[in-house]
Amino acid sequence: MPWGLWHAIHSRVLQPVTRLGATLVETWRAWTLPVEQLQGLPLEGRYYRREGQCHQCGDCCENIYLIHGGEALQSEAQLLSLKAENSDYASFVPMPQTPDELVTYGLKVRCEHLQPDRRCGIYEKRPSFCRRYPSEEILLKSGKMSENCGFRFTLKRSFTDVLSQTPVLTSNPSPTSEVQI
Closest Cα to residue 78, out of 95, 61, 94? Predict the structure, then answer.
Protein backbone atom coordinates (compact mmCIF):
# COMPACT_ATOMS: atom_id res chain seq x y z
CA MET A 1 0.00 0.00 0.00
CA PRO A 2 1.45 3.41 -0.92
CA TRP A 3 2.42 5.55 2.04
CA GLY A 4 0.08 8.40 1.02
CA LEU A 5 -2.92 6.07 0.92
CA TRP A 6 -1.99 4.51 4.26
CA HIS A 7 -1.58 7.97 5.81
CA ALA A 8 -4.96 9.09 4.48
CA ILE A 9 -6.73 6.01 5.83
CA HIS A 10 -4.92 6.25 9.15
CA SER A 11 -5.57 9.95 9.71
CA ARG A 12 -9.20 10.00 8.48
CA VAL A 13 -10.47 6.62 9.67
CA LEU A 14 -8.25 4.86 12.17
CA GLN A 15 -7.30 7.78 14.41
CA PRO A 16 -10.89 9.02 14.91
CA VAL A 17 -12.08 5.46 15.59
CA THR A 18 -9.24 4.99 18.06
CA ARG A 19 -10.15 8.26 19.80
CA LEU A 20 -13.82 7.24 19.88
CA GLY A 21 -12.84 3.86 21.29
CA ALA A 22 -10.75 5.54 23.99
CA THR A 23 -13.65 7.84 24.84
CA LEU A 24 -16.04 4.89 25.11
CA VAL A 25 -13.57 3.00 27.29
CA GLU A 26 -13.10 6.05 29.54
CA THR A 27 -16.89 6.44 29.84
CA TRP A 28 -17.30 2.75 30.64
CA ARG A 29 -14.53 2.93 33.26
CA ALA A 30 -16.18 5.96 34.88
CA TRP A 31 -19.47 4.04 35.20
CA THR A 32 -17.78 0.95 36.61
CA LEU A 33 -15.29 2.55 38.98
CA PRO A 34 -15.50 1.22 42.52
CA VAL A 35 -17.39 3.67 44.72
CA GLU A 36 -14.26 4.08 46.85
CA GLN A 37 -12.62 5.93 43.96
CA LEU A 38 -15.65 8.22 43.62
CA GLN A 39 -16.02 9.01 47.33
CA GLY A 40 -16.17 12.71 48.00
CA LEU A 41 -16.15 13.66 44.31
CA PRO A 42 -19.05 15.94 43.37
CA LEU A 43 -21.41 14.59 40.74
CA GLU A 44 -23.06 17.14 38.50
CA GLY A 45 -26.65 16.54 37.50
CA ARG A 46 -28.77 18.83 35.40
CA TYR A 47 -30.15 20.81 38.35
CA TYR A 48 -28.31 19.52 41.42
CA ARG A 49 -24.79 18.80 42.55
CA ARG A 50 -24.28 15.63 44.62
CA GLU A 51 -21.61 15.77 47.30
CA GLY A 52 -20.53 13.56 50.16
CA GLN A 53 -19.86 9.88 50.52
CA CYS A 54 -21.56 6.64 51.43
CA HIS A 55 -21.77 5.94 55.17
CA GLN A 56 -22.79 2.33 54.45
CA CYS A 57 -25.92 2.67 56.57
CA GLY A 58 -27.92 0.33 54.31
CA ASP A 59 -31.00 2.58 54.40
CA CYS A 60 -30.98 2.87 50.60
CA CYS A 61 -31.33 -0.92 50.34
CA GLU A 62 -34.76 -1.06 51.95
CA ASN A 63 -38.00 0.90 51.79
CA ILE A 64 -37.47 1.29 48.05
CA TYR A 65 -40.19 2.30 45.61
CA LEU A 66 -39.12 1.18 42.15
CA ILE A 67 -40.02 3.41 39.21
CA HIS A 68 -40.43 1.77 35.81
CA GLY A 69 -41.87 3.48 32.75
CA GLY A 70 -42.27 6.69 34.76
CA GLU A 71 -44.56 5.08 37.36
CA ALA A 72 -44.01 3.35 40.70
CA LEU A 73 -44.64 -0.38 40.63
CA GLN A 74 -48.08 -1.14 42.05
CA SER A 75 -48.07 -4.92 42.46
CA GLU A 76 -45.94 -7.98 43.00
CA ALA A 77 -46.98 -9.13 39.51
CA GLN A 78 -45.36 -6.00 38.04
CA LEU A 79 -42.21 -6.72 40.06
CA LEU A 80 -42.09 -10.31 38.74
CA SER A 81 -42.51 -9.06 35.18
CA LEU A 82 -39.71 -6.52 35.66
CA LYS A 83 -37.44 -9.21 37.11
CA ALA A 84 -38.05 -11.35 34.01
CA GLU A 85 -37.11 -8.41 31.75
CA ASN A 86 -34.02 -7.25 33.63
CA SER A 87 -31.86 -9.36 35.95
CA ASP A 88 -30.73 -6.22 37.84
CA TYR A 89 -34.12 -6.29 39.58
CA ALA A 90 -33.88 -9.96 40.66
CA SER A 91 -32.63 -9.01 44.13
CA PHE A 92 -35.70 -7.02 45.16
CA VAL A 93 -38.32 -8.58 47.42
CA PRO A 94 -41.60 -7.00 48.56
CA MET A 95 -41.84 -5.56 52.08
CA PRO A 96 -44.90 -5.51 54.30
CA GLN A 97 -47.03 -2.42 53.86
CA THR A 98 -50.57 -1.24 54.42
CA PRO A 99 -53.08 -1.03 51.54
CA ASP A 100 -53.04 2.78 51.93
CA GLU A 101 -49.24 2.86 51.51
CA LEU A 102 -49.52 0.70 48.41
CA VAL A 103 -52.11 3.01 46.83
CA THR A 104 -50.26 6.18 47.83
CA TYR A 105 -46.63 5.25 47.13
CA GLY A 106 -46.58 1.97 45.23
CA LEU A 107 -44.98 -1.37 46.02
CA LYS A 108 -42.28 -1.14 48.70
CA VAL A 109 -39.28 -3.48 48.25
CA ARG A 110 -35.93 -4.23 49.83
CA CYS A 111 -32.74 -5.81 48.50
CA GLU A 112 -32.24 -9.40 49.59
CA HIS A 113 -28.46 -8.83 49.67
CA LEU A 114 -28.58 -6.37 52.59
CA GLN A 115 -26.65 -8.12 55.36
CA PRO A 116 -27.43 -7.96 59.11
CA ASP A 117 -24.46 -5.57 59.54
CA ARG A 118 -26.23 -3.25 57.00
CA ARG A 119 -23.60 -3.84 54.30
CA CYS A 120 -24.10 -5.12 50.76
CA GLY A 121 -23.54 -8.83 50.28
CA ILE A 122 -22.75 -8.39 46.55
CA TYR A 123 -20.94 -5.06 46.73
CA GLU A 124 -18.39 -5.87 44.00
CA LYS A 125 -21.14 -7.15 41.66
CA ARG A 126 -23.96 -4.78 42.56
CA PRO A 127 -26.19 -3.46 39.74
CA SER A 128 -25.35 -0.23 37.95
CA PHE A 129 -28.21 1.72 39.52
CA CYS A 130 -26.80 0.85 42.96
CA ARG A 131 -23.41 2.16 41.84
CA ARG A 132 -24.96 5.47 40.73
CA TYR A 133 -27.17 5.94 43.79
CA PRO A 134 -28.23 8.54 44.70
CA SER A 135 -29.04 10.49 41.57
CA GLU A 136 -30.91 13.77 41.24
CA GLU A 137 -33.84 11.83 39.78
CA ILE A 138 -34.81 10.98 43.36
CA LEU A 139 -35.40 14.66 44.09
CA LEU A 140 -37.02 15.39 40.74
CA LYS A 141 -39.59 12.65 41.38
CA SER A 142 -40.35 13.94 44.90
CA GLY A 143 -38.34 11.16 46.51
CA LYS A 144 -36.70 11.39 49.89
CA MET A 145 -33.28 10.21 51.00
CA SER A 146 -32.54 8.70 54.40
CA GLU A 147 -31.47 11.05 57.18
CA ASN A 148 -28.43 8.78 57.66
CA CYS A 149 -27.24 9.10 54.06
CA GLY A 150 -23.81 10.68 53.68
CA PHE A 151 -24.74 12.23 50.33
CA ARG A 152 -26.34 15.65 50.00
CA PHE A 153 -27.72 17.56 47.04
CA THR A 154 -27.39 21.29 46.50
CA LEU A 155 -29.08 23.31 43.81
CA LYS A 156 -26.74 24.38 41.05
CA ARG A 157 -28.66 27.63 40.64
CA SER A 158 -30.82 29.24 43.30
CA PHE A 159 -34.43 30.15 42.64
CA THR A 160 -33.46 33.83 42.92
CA ASP A 161 -30.83 33.38 40.17
CA VAL A 162 -33.32 31.67 37.87
CA LEU A 163 -35.99 34.29 38.58
CA SER A 164 -33.58 37.17 37.94
CA GLN A 165 -32.85 35.78 34.46
CA THR A 166 -36.49 35.18 33.54
CA PRO A 167 -38.09 37.67 31.13
CA VAL A 168 -40.87 39.76 32.69
CA LEU A 169 -43.93 40.87 30.73
CA THR A 170 -45.13 44.45 30.92
CA SER A 171 -48.15 45.12 33.15
CA ASN A 172 -50.64 45.13 30.24
CA PRO A 173 -49.35 42.62 27.74
CA SER A 174 -50.72 42.84 24.27
CA PRO A 175 -49.80 40.91 21.14
CA THR A 176 -47.51 43.75 20.12
CA SER A 177 -45.95 44.51 23.51
CA GLU A 178 -42.31 43.64 23.99
CA VAL A 179 -40.80 41.53 26.70
CA GLN A 180 -38.70 43.49 29.19
CA ILE A 181 -35.60 41.89 30.62
Answer: 94
